Automatic annotation (TrEMBL):
Domain of life: Eukaryota
Bias kind Basic and acidic residues: ranges: 1-37, 170-189
Region of interest (Disordered), residue spans: 1-69, 127-196
Basic residues bias locations: 60-69
Residue spans of biased composition, Low complexity class: 38-50
Name assigned to this protein: Myb-like domain-containing protein
Taxonomic lineage of the native organism: Eukaryota, Fungi, Dikarya, Ascomycota, Pezizomycotina
Length: 196
């Protein structure tokens, strides 16, 4: 019987060893499967990176709209030319630029007249340096605006009496309207004695 005990013990030991070996083998298979999945994911990323690099290295086909144009490099000189061209185009079309609003946007120290004067100075400087300058229409050659057209329509007709178009003003001494239709400075100067 002692041999039976040894045999049972040996069988139990060998079964346990086989089980341990199977468990170890199963753990190794699972680890191998995880590593294989990680390797495949890394390979996919590497392939994607290679594809992207190859696409970036390939020359891009230009669109037809881009092939015929030249990009402009904007600088101060072109900015000045742009301002003068806008001013010229508005004058040609008879469009009144709201210089008062432009001056307000620039700041309290700017005025309408200063802006127009500065544009004229810029134009003259560019002409002296033989740089391109947009041509300005001659004064009075602009297309009439709506306000100018309305003013032309409202001119007095020749049938109306001439005194109706004169402005009336008040006599400072009496506070009443002057009888001749306008206040003449020459008459007032004639009444006061000159200092000599």
């Amino acid at each position: 019987m002692p041999s039976d005990k040894k045999t049972k013990k040996d069988e139990q030991t060998s079964r346990k060893a086989e089980e341990d070996t199977r468990n170890e083998l199963e753990a190794l298979r699972e680890e191998l499967a995880r590593k294989n999945e990680a390797l495949q994911a890394a390979m996919a990323q590497l392939n994607a990176a290679e594809t992207k690099t190859q696409q970036e290295q390939r020359p891009k086909a230009q669109r037809s709209s881009r092939s015929n144009r030249k990009l402009v490099r904007w600088d101060t000189d072109i900015d000045i030319q742009l301002m003068l061209a806008i001013h010229c185009a508005c004058n040609e079309k008879g469009t009144k630029i709201p210089w008062k609003k432009v001056a307000e946007e620039l700041g309290p120290e700017f005025t309408e007249g200063a802006i127009v004067q500065h544009l004229g100075e810029l134009r003259n400087e560019r002409e002296e340096l033989n740089k391109p300058v947009p041509t300005m229409p001659k004064r009075g050659a602009a297309i009439p605006t709506r306000v100018q057209e309305e003013h032309v329509k409202k001119k007095p007709t020749p049938s109306s009496p001439p005194s109706a178009s004169k402005r009336k003003s008040r006599d400072p001494s009496t506070g009443r309207d002057s009888g001749d239709g306008f206040y003449a400075l020459d008459k007032k100067r004639q009444q006061t004695p000159s200092r000599g």
